[in-house]
Write a structure and sequence with these properties.
402 residues, mainly alpha, Serine Threonine Protein Phosphatase 5, Tetratricopeptide repeat, 74% helix, 0% strand
Length: 402
């Protein structure tokens, strides 16, 4: 949201631009009016006012232009009270050109916002809208007024409507609209709404790793989220989004992968930690080396027993073991085999968590490269209120562990 200083600069520029409006005036005031206008555009505001000292018009057209020039001069001097009085007088003449009415009302709204006269500011915001003004400047003024007045409920309604309109039209919502909505939800203690907006920020602006980091930290607090089932996914997504940087985080991810067990993926994570310089130095270097030795041995042992474990999974009564072994194949980069085994497990049915199986299939397809479109389709089909669908959307937004 704009600070008062930035808002003032925005409004001053808008007010002075309006001095240039051409309008029919009587011959008696034409000369001093032009001289005053030129002085105002040159930022010689006191001189401009002096040039109009004692000058009066003979009708509403003259009154309009004199009030416009005086209003702009007072505004340039920082005398917003006198500026508002003059510009309101200009508006009251009924001589404001249709194309300029919105901008003049916007300028008045901004002046009253600076004066913290919020009710009057909002009246002029509405007049500007009624005159067809839908500028970014007007939206900034409105958000400023609503925020400073504590009317976060209205801020939320306004920005939620903008975001819905953008999504309905197939457009990406404006980043500032999303941020303002998130801020309004926080002020109104709408935790569910706040989390939804954070997800939208990740979805529409996935390259901003800060948005991903915040959402990944907050998601486990969502009502019904099965953190024990998806903590590994959240760590993977932190890694893929650039939000896994501490040695302790790499250690936790590696150990969870070993426990799952997915030793080949654990080995990949440990190797990344060493390549990034996160492992291998400091007081924990020896412990990190022991972990590296363990994941290397576990990966080798797992590869050696893979064929037998695959046969056992195929002979099992349920599809859970086939899904698990398929995920292991995928973690080794053997995506075709992994995808096929997960699909066999799903077809076998009797799954403990059917939506989790679809999640694992979608991730493997997405990571395979050649089945990305199918992966997105699979992930979009994941349902449930326990976190499976939330995690699936995150994998889509962040492109899996690319």
């Amino acid at each position: 949201m704009k600070t008062t200083r930035l808002l003032a600069a925005l409004l001053l520029a808008a007010g002075l631009a309006q001095v240039q409006v051409a309008h029919a005036v009587s011959a008696a005031i034409a000369k001093p009016l032009k001289e005053a206008s030129d002085l105002a555009r040159a930022s010689k505001f006191k001189e401009a006012l002096a040039k109009l000292n004692g000058v009066s018009g003979s009708g509403p057209d003259d009154t309009y232009m004199l009030a416009r020039i005086r209003g702009a001069a007072y505004q340039g001097m920082g005398d917003n009270g006198a500026a508002a009085q003059q510009l309101e007088a200009a508006f009251a003449t009924g001589k404001v050109p249709g194309a300029e009415a919105g901008r003049l009302a916007e300028t008045l709204a901004g002046i009253y916002a600076q004066r913290k006269e919020n009710a009057k500011a909002m009246q002029w915001v509405e007049k500007a809208k009624a005159a067809g003004d839908n500028s970014a400047g007007l939206r900034q003024i409105q958000d400023y007024v609503q925020g400073s007045s504590g009317d976060y409920g209205q801020v939320a309604r306004e920005n939620a409507a903008k975001i819905q309109a953008a999504e309905s039209a197939g457009r990406r919502p404006d980043e500032d609209d999303l941020l303002r909505l998130a801020d309004a939800y926080r002020h109104t203690n709408n935790k569910a709404g706040d989390l939804t907006v954070k997800e939208k920020l990740v979805t529409y602006y996935p390259s901003n790793k800060q948005y991903a980091g915040i959402y990944l930290s907050d998601l486990p607090g969502k009502s019904g989220f099965a953190q024990s089932r998806y903590s590994l996914d959240l760590l993977r997504l932190r890694l893929s989004s650039g939000n896994l940087t501490a040695a302790s985080d790499y250690m936790e991810l590696s150990q969870q992968l070993l426990t799952t067990p997915l030793p080949a993926e654990a080995k990949s994570v440990v190797d990344k930690a060493y390549t990034a310089g996160v492992f291998g130095t400091g007081a924990e270097a020896a412990r990190q080396q022991r972990l590296r030795d363990l994941v290397n041995k576990s990966a080798a042992d797992s590869a050696a027993s893979l064929a037998k474990r695959t046969a056992d999974a195929k002979a099992g009564k349920t599809g859970d073991d086939l899904v698990a072994i398929g995920v292991e194949y995928a973690s080794m980069g053997k995506y075709d085999e992994g995808i096929d085994l997960i699909q066999q497990g799903i077809a076998k049915d009797n799954l403990k968590h059917p939506e989790d199986a679809k999640l694992r299939l979608g991730i493997a397809q997405l990571q395979s490269g050649k089945a990305k479109a199918a992966g997105v389709k699979t992930l979009r089909s994941v349902q449930g209120a326990d976190g499976a669908s939330d995690v699936a959307r995150l994998y889509i937004a962040l492109g899996a562990a690319s």
